[in-house]
Amino acid sequence: MGLGLAASIFRNFVMPSAGADEIFLPPRAATFAPDAIANWRRRQLFTLRFARVGRQTLFFGAVAGAFYGGEAALALRRGVRDAGNAAASGAATGALLGAVMPGPLRPRTVALYALLGSAAGGASGLASRWADALAPPPPPPPPPMPAAPARAPGADTGPPRWQK
User: Which one, of 86, 84, 83, lies nearest residue 66 by Cα?
Assistant: First the structure.
């Protein structure tokens, strides 16, 4: 979700499309000073872009959640963590995206998105397993603490050592 937020902020605030954000002035704007109009436009643009960043980040997070949730569910069901889980989850997420994209619902579009999602998911799964293989092994656990020496029965009945 952080990647989606960063990409959306970059797209909307750092590199905005020229002329893509149309801001309409209220009818009484002719009576405003030029700097007031500029401030009003700037505030409206910020509000518009801020709302757009929120929508895009939420969408990206939902897609990532569907993909990784499907991958984890398949890993639990199959009992194996491999690239096949990522490819199958990518196909399901791609088909879901193909079904919710704007425009008419066509089986060809759903199949194309499923194919692309499967390819991207499989590549992601292979890269993840490759990175896991390159990572150093975890350190061994620390040795257990030695047991306290056993005391003879009745040895601790007297006063403490510091009072003797």
Answer: 86
| Pairwise CA distance, residues 101 & 95, whole Å | 10
In SS3 terms, 78-119 reads as HCCCCHHHHHHHHHHHHHHHHHHCCCCCCHHHHHHHHHHHHH
Q: Report the alpha-carbon distance of residue 8 to residue 60 in Å, rounded.
A: 9
This prediction's pTM: 0.65
How many CA atoms lie within 13 Å of 13's alpha carbon, on the beta-carbon side? Answer: 14
109, 94 in Cβ contact below 8 A?
Answer: no
Q: Whose CA is closest to 102, among 59, 70, 47, 49?
A: 59
Identify the helix (H) or strand (E) that includes residue 73: helix 34-78
* Rounded-to-integer distance, Cα 57 and Cα 79, Å: 32
Query: How does pLDDT run across 85-118, given as a tens digit for each residue?
Result: 999 999 999 999 999 888 888 899 999 999 999 9
Burial (CB count within 10 angstroms: exposed 0-12, middle 13-18, buried 19+), residue 42: exposed
Write out pLDDT tens, residues 148-163. Answer: 777 666 666 666 667 6
